[in-house]
Amino acid sequence: METADKPSISSKWARSPDLIAATKRQKPNDADFPWSIHETISGQRLCDDLQKTLTLLRLYTKFNLKLVKSSILASPNAPQFPNSEWSNIIIGAMVNLNHVISGSFAVSSDNCDVEVIGGIQFKFGAAHTTKHVKTSGDWFIAWGLYVQAASFAFPH
Fold first, then answer.
1. What is the pLDDT of residues 55-84, one digit of tens each?
2. How many structural domains is the chain composed of?
3. Does residue 24 lie in a domain region?
4. In which domain, by residue range, is 76 found?
5. CA–CA distance from 103 to each of 25, 47, 82, 84, 97 (Å)?
């Protein structure tokens, strides 16, 4: 019970400036990162295409990943590309070419796993690649699809 001289714990926390400051996410200053200092001192400049790529990667990370990806997927000009691998392109990570070729060409008739636990049957989707990059032809096809998607996200 809250009294005038003894506030409750919840009201005490609600008014605490330390708690309010701790819950707000601070934006880091790029100059605080150790590699930024090295880049500034070295004076090396990226070529124009790499600078444009870096600028777009920084832009994409300012927004929610789901928002950027949904914008790409809603675009009528976006190339066919697996949903999961769009995330890797947007953040500049490696793309799994097995997923690219599997998502584009392989058709699987059984895409769910079934588990029985205590007489209850659970069905859930399984993320299995049904086709793997095994030949140079597979690699060429998967790489071509990747190039189309990467060129869409980074048109320069």
1. 899 899 888 889 999 999 999 999 999 988
2. 1
3. no
4. 47-153
5. 37, 34, 6, 10, 10
